């Protein structure tokens, strides 16, 4: 029961407070406000005030409670578990088995292709999928995956901004980052500052290159077919 001296939370919050509640960068929250994903207004002094209800609504929609994630399994028609909140078990043996992989990719085709490749080569890996960058950032904060597979071109947030946030935020320091893209080397030039030093897979080469790169990220060989 609340103490009579406790002050109930305000109906609105600052951008910094909203970012803390959602586990996102302040810039990501600002972009969400600009796109109308959060209800907000400005004070006479020019400060953003965000509806707390809209913050909670967004968090509940993108990070619902639920069962722990399921590992990928073989079998026709199997898809990765869609749960986006409850953390999965870590790998006590430290050999990459039971590792958590988050794919941030808006294409259903490539979501299915990556899922298929992981089922074949790393059948005990746990996979979750985010359809856009903002949801992906929220899931990273909630689930703390071991490996992130990120597309450059995403709805919701610029790919370079997302990748830069992932590389510089202390929360993501223990996650390995792998980039997939439909852009060729020339088209990737504007993103060079964000991609520097990262493994990049051209989507036409996913089947040939992703298993080996995933094996390097997980620290164990892929299952031979």
Layout of strands and helices, then pairs:
Layout: E1 12-13, H1 15-22, H2 26-34, E2 40-42, E3 48-51, H3 52-62, E4 100-104, H4 108-121, E5 126-130, H5 133-143, E6 147-151, H6 159-168, E7 176-181, H7 192-195, E8 200-202, H8 206-218
Parallel strand pairs: 4-5, 4-6, 6-7, 7-8
Antiparallel strand pairs: 1-3, 2-3
Helix pairs in contact: 1-2, 4-8
Written account of the structure:
The protein is an alpha/beta fold. It folds into two domains: 12-62; 100-218, Rossmann fold. The chain contains eight helices and eight strands. A five-stranded parallel β-sheet has the order 5-4-6-7-8, with helices on both faces. A three-stranded antiparallel β-sheet has the order 1-3-2. Helix 1 (15-22) crosses helix 2 (26-34) and helix 4 crosses helix 8 (206-218). The chain is elongated and about 60 Å long. The protein starts with 11 loop residues before the first strand and ends in a 7-residue tail after the last helix.
């Amino acid at each position: 029961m609340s103490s009579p001296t406790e002050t109930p939370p305000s109906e609105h919050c600052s951008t910094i407070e909203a970012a803390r509640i959602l586990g996102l960068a302040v810039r990501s929250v600002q972009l969400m406000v600009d796109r109308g994903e959060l209800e907000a207004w400005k004070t006479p002094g020019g400060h953003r005030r965000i509806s707390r209800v809209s913050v909670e609504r967004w968090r509940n929609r993108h990070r619902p409670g639920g069962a722990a994630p399921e590992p990928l399994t073989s079998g026709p028609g199997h898809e990765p578990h869609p749960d986006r909140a409850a953390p999965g078990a870590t790998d006590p043996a430290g050999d990459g088995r039971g590792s958590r992989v988050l794919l941030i990719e808006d294409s259903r085709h490539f979501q299915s292709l990556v899922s298929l490749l992981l089922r074949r080569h790393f059948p005990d890996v746990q996979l979750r999928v985010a359809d856009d960058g903002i949801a992906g950032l929220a899931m990273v904060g909630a689930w703390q995956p071991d490996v992130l597979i990120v597309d450059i071109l995403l709805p919701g947030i610029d790919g370079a901004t997302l990748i830069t946030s992932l590389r510089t935020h202390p929360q993501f320091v223990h996650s390995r980052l792998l980039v997939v893209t439909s852009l060729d080397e020339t088209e990737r030039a504007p993103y060079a500052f964000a991609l520097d030093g990262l493994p990049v897979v051209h989507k036409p080469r996913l089947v040939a290159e992703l298993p080996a790169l995933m094996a390097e990220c997980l620290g164990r060989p892929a299952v031979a077919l």
